[in-house]
Amino acid sequence: MAEPRLVVNELFTSIQGESRFAGWPCAFIRLSGCPLRCSWCDTTYAYEEGQTYPCSALLEFVNKQGVRHVELTGGEPLAQVESLGLLSALCDEGYTVLLETSGACPIDAVDPGVHIIMDWKLPSSGMEDRMLPENLSLLREKDELKCVIADRNDYDIAKALVQDTKRRPACSVSLGAVADRLDPRQLAEWILEDRLNVRFQLQLHKVLWAPDRRGV
Predict the structure, then answer these.
(1) Are strands 25-31 and 5-15 parallel, antiparallel or unpaired?
(2) Please, what is the end-to-end C-alpha distance for the chain in angstroms?
(3) What is residue 213's predicted lDDT score, i.e. its pLDDT?
(4) CB 179 within 8 A of CB 210
(5) CA distances in angstroms from 77 to 23, 42, 66, 80, 89, listed in the order given
(6) Integer Cα distance of 73 and 102 in angstroms
(7) I need a labelling partner for 33 at 20 to 30 A (CA). Which of 4, 9, 55, 173 fits?
(8) How do residues 21-38 score in pLDDT, each as one tens digit?
């Protein structure tokens, strides 16, 4: 049987820039391809560009990095079904495994050892109707729901989700501002005014390096 293979956009090791794991050195596997076309996407280069790797080569890459955190991101990593096997293999190796995924792909088959970071799309993205509501109920305390905010309407919808006891997931919720669309300070002020029970976040890699730099 042929070894599973994945189309990869880039491999690199950097400081984790988002989520509650922000600040940790982390190996990144950015997979190619995405079924969504968010209006503010900052990784459009991952739509098409990529090289095919066997999963064993990706494990070898991670093993050589000397870090304990690894993230599968994209694009949309779950658009390639073989990513599920790689996630499980990384968990078996003892890594802290992060999966950055949208709410558009089912997460029920993801290895339970994985920390899911779900990027829930709001109206400004143009992809709100592609989200799968059932994914919210599958998120566990160890996971994270992330909402990217471009304007007040996005914020109000995220706020309603957080305050809805029937829809709010069991995990923590993080809000971040779309670069060049919303001043992060404004978002922080909205959160403080409402005493909203969320985590405000900045993209650390864009603070440390140029916002359009790859491989960080």
Answers:
(1) antiparallel
(2) 35
(3) 74
(4) no
(5) 22, 16, 23, 6, 15
(6) 10
(7) 173
(8) 999 999 999 999 999 999
